[in-house]
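Bug #77: duplicate submission created two jobs. Keeping one. Sequence:
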Amino acid sequence: MDNNKIRIGLFGFGVVGQGIYQVIKKAPNAHAEIRRICVRDINKPRSVEIPAGLLTDNADEILHADDIDLIVEVIDNAEASYRIVSSALRRGIPVVSGNKAMIARHLPELIELQRRHDTALLYDASSCGSIPVIRNLEEYYDNDLLLEVKGILNGSSNYILSRVFDHGESYSDALAKAQALGFAESDPTFDIEGFDSLFKLVIITVHALGVYVSPDDIFTYGISSIHDSDIRYAREKRVKIKLVAQVAKVGNGCFTMFVMPEFVRSNKYIYSVDDEYNGVVVRGECYDRQFMFGKGAGSLPTASSILSDIMARRHDYRYEYKKMHYLDRPSYTTDITLRIYVRYRTTPVLDILPFSKIHEQYISDDSCYVIGDILLSELIARRPQLAANDIFIANTSTFFEHLD
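Kept job's structure:
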């Protein structure tokens, strides 16, 4: 890239897209200019004023333009995102994307397209907003010493749980407030069911361990069925419930990964990660723990990460996926035993879940719970039964205590 401005074709002009437009205007040393913006509806009212003629509803006006050096894609439709990104890469145009669902579903193919067409796809904004997790995993943790990446990867669910545990609000009130503030969508399923965290974890794992695992093969459980009795139990134990994603080496050349609520004690870094913030703990053999903290969502925090990737492209930066070329990469396993808390009312949990050992059990007319040991593979196999509305599951993190 020469000293002239990098010319950008932007796809999507919603909350994040408008944030990108504002951030670029505030950063003259980025030497970046948005030449065209592709949107679904040109006539839709927008809060950010832009020059007339900048908008188009024809993707080809950007993808086939001679005056575009870089595609920035921040639309919320994964299928459309894939078509745009893959088309750009095939034409040799570098891309910056923030669509974690699309990237997590198609990452092996996208890596191959980058290699075949000698171009680059950057996506730090897809994982944890303003926190530069991917770049750090690529450059600083590019060795065998990394053992675990664990954290709060979704700001919406964390905001809700923070209102519950730090402000004494009910789950329903906290959810409504998150929606009113724009932290959660009118349909919050993507966030509160753990899918947003799941897709981020898939991407992180590729850069942390060099292995791609399909989202369909990973146990994911959210917070939508949390009940007052679960909150009361956590408070009695002086812990908080957080929606946690983690990938960890577990010995014998294997690693495991999952997303689920967890009882977090006050001596853990992520205990104090509140509101819409994200927090990521990286643990390694020789450096113990390192902690990254920052806003994980929102227009300007995400846009700042997009800007960082735009600046990186000025210097021809690209991910090298170094660990994917290791000869001895770890294998994904679900053959590990977790100690989980399961709250239920009428669903016959003890008939559904084959616990190898039960440590605690409580039965009442209003709600019951059991704490027991079970294989992660058994939880995956029984995902349909565990979707019952009267069930809530949380990890006690006992399995990983010997790793701490």
